[in-house]
Design goal:
The protein has about 160 residues and is mainly alpha-helical. The chain contains 8 helices and no strands.
């Protein structure tokens, strides 16, 4: 299944994202993995969930790991604040691949915006991914599940008996 939301991004915003990516890749290649925090205010200034959700997807094409996780988060019906486009299958795909990339690059790239500054959001991303993984009987990468579980405090959770 393929979904492209790029047509929802205004041309001037898309050009700004492309220009930012070109500068980043030329001078600071590793920072392409964490471009969302620098572009967030500009994108959210449009005050349109569809533009934000579309921009998150567009940044995944520009290799932004944070955007990949957040795009998956906005796609999931399990997120009470999901975006206008919802697809649980795509949500699980983007959440899993995003979390795998966080796991791969967490010591090499500054992902502190997501892992520390927005740790509650990161926990919600992990929790949502785990709910998809558990519902689908782990038809996913078990190392990604284990990595996600280490950010969740199951002791404080109440489960039905």
């Amino acid at each position: 299944m393929h979904l492209s939301l790029i047509h929802n991004i205004p041309d001037d915003l898309r050009k700004h994202i492309d220009d930012h990516y070109a500068r980043t890749i030329q001078y600071y290649p590793a920072k392409r993995l964490a471009m969302w925090p620098r572009l967030r205010a500009l994108i959210e200034n449009h005050e349109c969930q569809l533009i934000t959700q579309s921009s998150l997807q567009y940044l995944t094409f520009h290799q932004c790991v944070i955007s990949r996780c957040l795009f998956g988060y906005t796609l999931s019906q399990g997120n009470s604040n999901h975006g206008p486009i919802v697809s649980n299958n795509l949500a699980e795909y983007y959440l899993e691949t995003g979390i795998k990339l966080v796991q791969k690059f967490e010591t090499e790239v500054d992902l502190s915006w997501l892992l520390q500054s927005r740790s509650d959001l990161w926990k919600q991303v992990c929790c949502l991914y785990l709910s998809h993984a558990y519902q689908n009987d782990f038809h996913c990468c078990k190392s990604t599940v284990k990595f996600s579980e280490k950010f969740i405090n199951f002791k404080k959770k109440k489960f039905a008996a």
